[in-house]
Write a structure and sequence with these properties.
This protein is mostly helical and 571 residues long. The chain is built from 19 helices and four strands. Helix 3 runs antiparallel to helix 4 and helix 6 runs parallel beside helix 18.
């Protein structure tokens, strides 16, 4: 570990803190309907869709609209991918996407997961990339933000179960947040060297005389929304390690910053819309502490390197940033510090973008992104999903605090009773059940084992990471698992759908139940949610829920692999 590495991590953390209030203030204005500089276009979209943006929808109607929209857009993408060979903007004449991969990809991008079992440059046409995948990058992110705002409304007001209007929230988040920010970020990426064109692939001759194909395409525009919307799906197979997607250390910084910008700002929105700004900062503080612990662990583990290599004189001391550390699977232009930081950021958020190979991390370095996902990606998290996931943990924390003092728990003046706790527990239990059941099946079934490229505990980690990533709507992978089979395409596709929608419904129900509660004045038994004690208790609940659920599986995977590595065994 070096002073330069820590300085870069500190600069990143400061930038995220600095953007939280100004961007949060803007988000509040957008969702309160005070930003209307695209008013004619916004009204035209409402008329085209035949919806009334002024309707204050009951939570059942809000959830139904979200499910209907998601289902329709997923079917549209599946059909478009299956017909790719007859659609325009396909200069390489790429064939139709196979049925199993079309289903998995449509499900993955609809759910903001962006898990990719294919190589983008050899499977997807420009039309598919822009009209379907980038389209979902926008709308799946806008759906996540809309749901987070709906939950905050349920907490903040008494409205007989009404949470606002899904269609208005969806359109405003897209028009006033994601589109303008994407335009700005795309220009930055182009300036840094990301490509943006519609040219056919280039055939070149290398200095050695070999023939090489260099893929082209509209990359920068997709790179921008891929990061802002915490989507993560790469235009190229190498994702953000590819020089056309992420050419410089400066573009790398912007990639990470845009992943955290909106999720961080949403905590300020929480404080402002509930009238408890200190509570918003308390939630931000819990996220920041968990982020710093994760990046410190990952950086330490990767900088420490592999002792087996040291014994054999194989230290990969490629850069000044890496005296004796683990550079396997990392880009020299980023080094260990930015690789560890990127891996932590992308898995704290539900973003599958990667600038290094997680499969090549040391066992403890790889443990960090895996645990980040399994905690529910509540450490800033995906746009919207991180906030509403964290608020479910807040509800559990307040409930536990109420049990400690023997009083009915209250959260911001609203009592947490049986229905609310049931929805929170359902949200918490669905996630590990899907991951652990499907991982257990895949670790014993021939079709599951056939996809492994590594044996022993590392092979288990690959399976566990795949189902954690898809169920958690992250999309990154250890990449040692061959996921392009009927078995994995099908199971991982369904995991993305369950991990998104089976968890959203109880969350929206909780928002509706809370909006029915009257706001009561705080009493002596009310647990304060603005203090350092609350932050500590919230972090404890998050860690305990994750540790109790996943620790046995992690013990058989990356933890035992670490001790075996210390004993001289590799997998």
């Amino acid at each position: 570990m070096t002073a330069s590495g820590w300085l870069q991590i500190g600069l990143f953390a400061f930038a995220v803190l600095a953007v939280t209030k100004p961007l949060g203030r803007y988000l509040v204005a957008v969702y309160e309907g005070r930003v209307r500089w695209l008013g004619p276009l916004e009204r035209g979209l409402y008329r085209l869709a035949g919806v009334d943006p002024e309707e204050d929808q009951h939570w059942t109607r809000y959830a139904g609209a979200m499910l209907l929209f998601s289902a329709a857009s997923m079917v549209l993408t599946y059909v478009a991918l299956r017909l790719q060979h007859v659609l325009p903007l396909n200069p390489q004449a790429l064939p139709a996407v196979p049925d199993r991969q079309a289903f998995e990809t449509a499900a993955s991008f609809t759910t903001n997961t962006n898990w990719q079992s294919y190589s983008g440059e050899s499977m997807m046409s420009y039309f598919s990339q822009m009209s379907q995948l980038a389209f979902h990058n926008f709308i799946s992110a806008a759906v996540g933000m809309a749901l987070a705002v709906a939950l905050v409304r349920g907490i903040a007001r008494r409205s007989a179960g009404r949470l606002g209007n899904f269609w208005a929230d969806l359109v405003r988040g897209t028009l006033y947040v994601l589109l303008p920010l994407s335009l700005l970020v795309a220009l930055i990426m182009v300036q840094q060297g990301s490509i943006q064109n519609f040219r056919p692939y280039l055939e070149v001759t290398t200095l050695e005389g070999a023939k090489q194909t260099i893929a082209m395409g509209p990359v920068a525009s997709q790179e921008a929304i891929k990061q802002l919307g915490t989507n993560g799906g790469g235009f190229f197979n190498a994702n953000a390690a590819h020089p056309f997607e992420n050419p410089t250390p400066w573009s790398n910084f912007w990639s990470m910053f845009t992943i955290f910008a909106i999720p961080s700002a949403l905590t300020w929105l929480l404080g402002r819309m509930t009238g408890r700004q200190r509570h918003g900062w308390a939630v931000w503080s819990a996220m920041a502490v968990l982020f710093l612990v994760g990046v410190t662990t990952a950086y330490w583990a990767e900088a420490r390197g592999n002792p087996i290599h040291a014994e054999r004189g194989l230290d990969l001391t490629t850069t000044a940033d890496n005296p004796g550390g683990n550079m396997e699977g990392k880009e020299v232009r980023f080094g260990i510090a930015n690789s560890a930081l990127y891996a932590t950021v992308t898995t704290d958020a539900s973003c599958g973008a990667v600038n290094s190979m997680h499969d090549s991390f040391t066992p403890l370095g790889g443990l960090v992104p895996l645990v980040n996902i399994q905690l529910g990606e509540v450490i800033f998290g995906g746009v919207g999903a991180g906030l509403y996931g964290m608020l479910m943990m807040v509800v559990l924390t307040v409930f536990i605090a109420g049990l400690m003092v023997g009083r009915t728990p209250e959260y911001l003046g609203k009592r947490i009773q049986a229905r609310e706790v049931q929805m929170a527990m359902l949200y918490v239990l669905i996630f590990p059940a899907v991951i652990l059941v499907l991982s257990a099946l895949s670790s014993v079934m021939p079709a599951g084992l056939k996809g492994l490229n590594n044996a022993g505990p590392h092979g288990l980690s690959e399976i566990l990471y795949a189902f954690s990533s898809t169920t958690g709507n992250n999309g990154s992978a250890f990449a040692g698992l061959t996921g392009s089979t009927y078995y994995y395409n099908t199971l991982l596709g369904f995991a993305t759908l369950i991990g998104r929608f089976a968890m959203i419904v109880p969350m929206v129900a909780l928002a509706g139940f809370l909006s029915e509660r009257r706001i009561a004045p705080e009493t002596a038994g009310t647990f304060p949610v603005t203090t350092p004690l609350f932050v500590v208790l919230l972090i404890g609940v998050i860690l305990i829920v994750g540790a109790l659920t996943f620790f046995p599986a992690l013990s058989l995977g990356p933890i035992v692999e670490h001790f075996l590595m210390q004993a001289g065994s590799l997998f």
